[in-house]
Each structure stands twice: as C-alpha cells, then as structure tokens.
Specification:
One of its GO terms (cellular component) is cytosol. Thiol-specific peroxidase that catalyzes the reduction of hydrogen peroxide and organic hydroperoxides to water and alcohols, respectively. By secondary structure, the chain is α+β, with helices and mostly antiparallel strands. The chain has eight helices and ten strands. Strands 5-4-3-6-7 form a five-stranded mixed sheet. It has a three-stranded antiparallel sheet with strand order 8-10-9, with no helix packed on it. Helix 2 crosses helix 4. The longest helix is centred in the C-terminal third of the chain and has 17 residues.
Length: 222
C-alpha cells in the first residue's frame, strides 16, 4: 500500500476524501469551501498527549477564527469513541471542543495523507495488523493547496503557538509579497525577497533597512 501513497508536496492539492466526523458526514473539499484550514491527526482516542493537544487547540478557536482558519482533527477510532473522548477533553482541559474530529478507524485518511511512520510500515510488513497514526499537521490554503506540513512522532506533543505563527507568516507573505525571518511573529520586521529591488521595495513599503544587498528588512504591521 505504501507504494501507491500520493506525494504530498508543498503546493500540491490536498487529497479529497469523504468521512464521518463528530459534526456529521463530510466531503473534505466541500468542507474547506475556500477557507484556510488545518488538518491534524492523533494516534488514538483516550490517550494522554492527544487529550492535552485537542484541549489546547480548542482553547485557541478564537485565534484561528480571526485568521479565517478552519480546524479539523483526526483520530484512528470509531465515531462513538470520539464523542466520549470529547467529553473527557472538555472536562480535563476546561474547554469546549467545537471543531469536527474525523473517525478513521480503518486508517483510510491516514494512508491517503501518509500519516504513518516507517517503523509501523516495517512492522505491518512483518506482522500484519493495523498501523498507528503519527501526529501530522497540514496547513491548507483557500486554493486547497498544502502550504505547510509538520510531522511529529506519537510521543511528542505539538506546539500550538508555532501553528499560529506559520499561518501568520503564510498569510502575511501572500498578502504583502514578503518573506519572514527566523522566529518571526506578527508585527515584527519582515524580509524583502531577492526578486524585488530595493528601489521598488521603498516605493511599496516605505522604509527599507538594507543590512546586505541581499538582506533587507521592512515592516508591514500586523
């Protein structure tokens, strides 16, 4: 099966699928509906790291809403299990999970999005059975293109602030035609790309600080 997995390159169209979720049946491309989105996977329901992650994402719903970003999770269990787990998350994390969670007990979406580790693939080849999903994050833009991926092992919880940071970077870059430096956060100086001359950059942005001919900073606000 591994040989027929799609290549999820940056800039490629996010594969479509139909699935059951805690908010009803969806067609993924129709659900996107021209919005930014993040799709993030979890190895299983009722697991400790996943519980903390979903609680953290739920608490940031307003921040994702401000950026026009839909959230959708995936966990490799049946729908009924998801509903029970959400109750636990809301209780433990003092939040209210409002985004859908995909039921993927058969790993259909996990295979489609290559949410499987090589260790599990090797184990399946030798012993059979079914694979766990890793912690994947896909940032998808309004054109349904994959703009960023993050892949974590099951043992490591994600950083929600980094997910928001890269969305800010992508959206700022698309809007302003700039790129962002290391550890950049919204409001800090951005970099003028090499394809834009300093003269043109000053016409567009006003003040441009030239550190080197190839390294020029400006500020475009939030």
């Amino acid at each position: 099966m591994a040989s027929i997995l799609p290549r999820l390159r940056l800039g490629s169209i996010a594969p479509n699928f139909q699935a059951k979720t805690t908010h009803g049946d969806i067609d993924f491309h129709k659900w996107l509906n021209g919005s930014w989105a993040i799709l993030f996977s979890h190895p299983a329901d009722f697991t400790p790291v996943c519980t903390t992650e979903l609680g953290a994402f739920a608490k940031l719903k307003d921040e994702f809403d401000k950026r026009g970003v839909k959230m959708i999770g995936l966990s490799a269990n049946e729908l009924g299990s998801h509903d029970q787990w959400i109750s636990d998350i809301n209780e433990v994390c003092s939040t209210n999970v409002q985004f859908p969670i995909i039921a993927d007990a058969d790993r259909k979406v996990a295979w489609l999005y290559d949410m499987i580790s090589q260790d599990d693939l090797d184990k399946l080849a030798k012993e059979g059975g079914i694979a766990f999903t890793i912690r994947s994050v896909y940032v998808i833009d309004p054109d349904k293109k994959i703009r960023l991926t993050m892949l974590y092992p099951a043992s490591t919880g994600r950083n929600t602030a980094e997910v928001l940071r890269v969305i800010d970077s992508l959206q700022t870059g698309d809007k302003e035609g700039v790129v962002t430096p290391i550890d950049w956060t919204a409001g800090q100086d951005v970099i003028v790309p090499p394809s834009v001359s300093t003269e043109d950059a000053r016409k567009k942005f006003g003040e441009v600080k030239e550190v080197k001919p190839y390294l020029r900073f400006t500020n475009v606000g939030k």
